[in-house]
Structure formats: C-alpha cells, structure tokens
Amino acid sequence: MTSIVAMYDAMYKNIRRLLSRLVPTIAIVGIMLGLVVGGLSIGTDLWADDVRPEKGHFAPDFTLKTLEGNTVRLSELRGKKVVLINFWATWCPPCRLEMPTMQQIYSEYKDKGFEILAVNIESDANQAISDFAKELRLTFPILLDPDMKVIRKFRVIGLPVSVLIDRQGFVHAKEIGYHDWTTRASRKQVEALLNSH
Domain named Thioredoxin: which ranges (predicted)? Predict the structure, then answer.
C-alpha cells in the first residue's frame, strides 16, 4: 500500500513539474494563434504597413494609454528621445527576469534622453499589472495594449520582445526573448544612439 501511495505521489509531482513548464508555452502559443486569427478576422489594417518593422525600418506609430490613464504617442517622442519598446505580460517568466535590467538602464539614462515604453498585452489585468510594477519597483511608463493592436503592428509573435528605436524613429535593434539590458554591449548600443544627433 505504501509503495502505491509513493508511486502516485511521484506521478503527481512529475505531472505538476510538467504542467509548470507547459503553461507558459501554452500561453505563448495562445497569443501567437490569437495574433494570427485576430489579425485575419479583424482585417489586415491592423498589421504593419511594412512587412518587416525591424532594423533599418521606420517604427510604426501608435497611441496607447498608460496604467495611470495618460496618453502616449510614439511619434511625439521622435526627434527627442531614444526609445526602447518592450512587449510583455505579467505571466511571462522571461519578462519578469529582464524587467529589473530595464529598470536599471532606465534609471541611468532617462535624464539623457532615453525612454522605455513597456507595452503590456493583457486584458482586464490592470490590478495584476499594477502589483507587478510595484513589486519590481518599475518607474518607466507601462502602456496597455489589451486588443493587441500595437503588438500586431510590430509583428510580434512571442514574449518578451524589445525594439530599440533611434531619435529619428528608425528601428535600431530588435531583441527576441530575454535580454539583459545592463550588459556592456547593451549599454554601448544605447549610449551610441544617445550620442548621435
């Protein structure tokens, strides 16, 4: 009897371990399907005009509300700031890992013309987003994209994704997945854009 209980206990633990690994993957696949199906059902007008808004391409403009209800338009930062757009969600483990590195680089460069726009794609999750931001002590603007219109414009199909944009509005780099923004290479990238006029 004891061996049967131990066997079931081991099976239960293995199933829990497997599910803990699968849930983020299932969520990402769900987002990918939602983006594709949503884009097809709503129409192509939500997709970026340029098939590849990537390095060397002009960043699509957008307007979103912040968590506090303020309006931010990307084009209003053009000519003024180097912008890092980060697409994320509270349930995304790599997003949670990279957020502190984003906060650190933001604190160091915000007074030199650097801005971070953290675009969250969750719907009806304002409290969870607010709790997340407080827990990690995030001070950069958090924008809300619950209809995933902006994430479609940038043709993002997974999380997190970061897009670094120069002052003229052109995409300088696109980082897919977790990225440590405190590395020497990342700092040099940001500094080079801040120093170019």
Answer: 53-197
